[in-house]
């Protein structure tokens, strides 16, 4: 194994400083952020948004995501944002206020992520809604300096659960891994976690172990792998050998390699022929129905796999409202897949934003400040059962393990049956207590 790569963290080590300390740091860097916001470098990747009309009553927001890159791409998130704005504006806006959505491409690049944030400041957006970026260290200082709230990010960075201006709608990777570990504890012998050999990857065993421990299981067998490999034959063989070390037990393999999970499973499919009894599990975001279909459906490597997600499965009737908007406003837009977790997160984020705007008095201007104040004053937002009722406090229960802004630790348990991703059990599983037992960092 070559030396460890310090790659951009998907999840940084969980911090132990208080949210108050974080707020103080945000204030210190506010001056630098405001200076940086006075100019906007060319090439931010912004394309025209939509607006239902001009005038003082128009509310400007931004949604950003990586587009047309060689790594992670989330085109459905901005596409859904535009469709949502068309839907709202066609109905006269939110309490008569039309929405203008600006789209920015962060190109999976820290510099462009900062450019998107500076664009948001220059355009005087009232919030960044339903977005995805791995570069929180680049965009949060700018948003914090300008006081712009970040509503419903994908949950891909640790800062989304620590920044006082972040209002997440799901529990990110911590909740998914804890939930998966708890589920696998009941039906697996040895659990082999295949994860990146990076600083960020170091945190994953502790998160899944918190779930395994809650289920009375031993810790995972931690197997490192290169995060940028083009094939994983050797690691697949090793994972299978470790999972079957005890012939009397049925082992499980859990690939947690992000965008490389499918690459691993392609190698794993071939190596698994000699180990048919081994089961698999992973988390939504690494795998969705599109990936399952592309890998062979019921004859593919995901058949029988347990997968944890944040929300109900796409076939659940609670998604009917989102699907109706897609049909009416973006029927021919192939970028929008209603089964995509990014699209679903964007829908929920805009649901939150609409509730916030409706809660602001008619005579009061909708600004970043009034949006943030409404959120901080304890507004409770119902998402129609797609999540528990959402409410953000200065510090929530998981502040003790470094996640003061994590307010929704519910996950859903899904399984691949006959090539389709279906609910493994009804309802949500709350992993708050499981995460409270995690000792990370």
TrEMBL record:
Domain of life: Bacteria
Keyword annotations from UniProtKB, A to Z: Signal
Keyword Signal: yes
Signal peptide range in chain numbering: 1-41
Gene3D superfamilies: 3.40.50.2300
PROSITE patterns: RHODANESE_3 (PS50206)
Pfam annotation, one family: Peripla_BP_6
Residues covered by the Rhodanese domain: 85-144
PANTHER family assigned to the protein according to its UniProt record, in alphabetical order: LEUCINE-SPECIFIC-BINDING PROTEIN, PERIPLASMIC BINDING PROTEIN OF ABC TRANSPORTER FOR NATURAL AMINO ACIDS
Similarity comment: family membership: Belongs to the leucine-binding protein family.
Name the UniProt record assigns to this protein: Rhodanese domain-containing protein
Source organism: Streptomyces pharetrae CZA14
Taxonomic path: Bacteria, Bacillati, Actinomycetota, Actinomycetes, Kitasatosporales
